[in-house]
Amino acid sequence: MKILQTPVRFRPFIGGVENYVYNLSRGLVRLGHEVTVLCANEPKSEKEELMDGIRVKRLPYIGKIANTNITPSLPIEILREDFDLIHAHLPTPWSADWSAVFSKMRRRPLILTYHNDIVGAGFANRAAHLYNRTALKNLLNRADRIIITQPKYLRSSPYLKRYEDKIVVIPVGVDVERFRPMHSDKINNSIFFLSVLDEFHRYKGLDQLLRALVPEEMLANYYNRCDIFVLPSVSKAQEGFGMVLLEAMACGKPVVCTDIVGVADEVKTKGAGLIVEPSNAEELAEAISHILQDRSLAHKMGEVGRRLVEERYGWEKVAKRVEEVYEGLI
């Protein structure tokens, strides 16, 4: 099967959607499919390359609207490609909208992974509101299948309810070989940074500090060095799943999260961590303290979390489920 993926960006850009598309595509290649990715050339890389069996074509862009790169050559590039289906991704439009146009023109199925709602602040919020009232409806109507990563999103999103008949729930995955329990020395050196964390204090440079301290290739080591992983997400519209929680669990770490996170129900029922109410700092503090003060409990939670991701969330299993969606449309 020839699969065309059209995310707005791709590796080496680091982000949740980029990670999803890379690992899903790699899994599909291992299942014997041909995968091509069309994306913006950000950060600037080779214009065309083969990455883990994935053919990647990077296109020049003229700027951004909110978080979406505008790639004028995308329509032409889609026309040039030979594909059996297109797999597009939201919440960054443009690529997804052009994918819908040419999937219909070429009479090929369109699969859309709806990671989360399109929202923003200021001008970006006004642009998102306009898009959601117009182009989004057209995109959802044209999609043959819509993949969401957790069932709660069907209830919380104001845009998905009328499309329930073509929605499939398939979670994100985790690389259980890369993210695994390993021996790691505790951190001896410490750095202290203090600032208000809002848009008006971006000039403090926290983003640059984080880039300097957290290289992508060291993530598994950092997960293993911690005692507990916390993801206190507060926005149902913006938190599509919470992939980092799976990575921490794969490393055998107990977790604390809110019920917004996609794997929250299983964390609770299996006993891999604790679930707290969103925006409840007191409950969050109690959950963290409870786990940190009970080493036996923390160890047990970590083991449960590792078993859970091995059984349900390996990328190979996720890719196989997506493959079944594809085959049902071809």
TrEMBL record:
Keyword annotations for this protein, in alphabetical order, are: Transferase
| Glycosyltransferase subfamily 4-like N-terminal domain residues | 14-178
Molecular function GO labels: glycosyltransferase activity
Q: Which SUPFAM superfamilies match?
A: UDP-Glycosyltransferase/glycogen phosphorylase (SSF53756)
> What Pfam families does UniProt report for this protein, alphabetically?
Glyco_transf_4, Glycos_transf_1
Entry-linked InterPro entries: Glyco_trans_1, Glyco_trans_4-like_N, Glycosyltransferase_grp1
Q: Where is the Glycosyl transferase family domain?
A: 215-307
**Designated name of the protein:** Glycosyl transferase group 1
